[in-house]
Amino acid sequence: MTKRVLNVVTNVGHYDDPSHATGLWLSELTHAWHVFEEHGYEQTLVSPAGGAVPLEPRALKFPNYDKTAKAWRADPGKMALLENTASPDRIDASEYDAIYFTGGHAVMYDFPDSEGLQRITREIYERGGVVSSVCHGYCGLLNTRLSDDSCLIAGRRITGFAWTEEVLARVDKLVPYNAEEKAKERGALYEKATLPFVSYVVTDGNLVTGQNPGSAKATAEKVVDAVEGNASKERG
Length: 236
What we know:
Blueprint: E1 4-8, H1 26-38, E2 42-46, H2 67-73, H3 76-81, E3 98-101, H4 107-110, H5 115-126, E4 130-134, E5 157-158, H6 163-168, H7 179-185, E6 189-190, E7 201-204, E8 207-210, H8 216-235
Helix pairs in contact: 1-8
């Protein structure tokens, strides 16, 4: 049977200060989309509010703007997908093998408290599906609780955009909170690469997380490994 992945994107277009734009870090979607597409997976885009997805301007500049992102922006069909994403209430979690939270600083605002996304994530996870995120996408896991009221990331090895990287990106004064610290407060066993901005992925069972934009492709590949591992268990 065809595998299905739910890609989560943001609806937010700026920081608390409206003069500073943000949004989806496009390559974090396109790199993963390409990997999933190569494996024949069906993909759906969902956002906390449904509808349009703003793009992070800095992600569209060299060296962040690569061929997969350029190809997406040059494809009217692909761009249309970002104008009409599904809202969580339209998603049946039982239809998906994995959920993948993309990043960009915008997700810090609308991912954590989306009860719809929390429901979908919990249902996929508790059914044995794969829960994954890249970069700031882990903000979507911060407040997700399981049916026993425990925090999904408590006691689990994860990674995500590091505070050091916020400082180096010069947005530490703009972001609404320290995501790395929030994850640790919730009991996550946070890890990061020795050097900032290099690809780094952590897999803990069916939880797969990548540290930064450069980790998107490797994160998606690990998601595929986990999904295929689940499939082989079912066959066995």
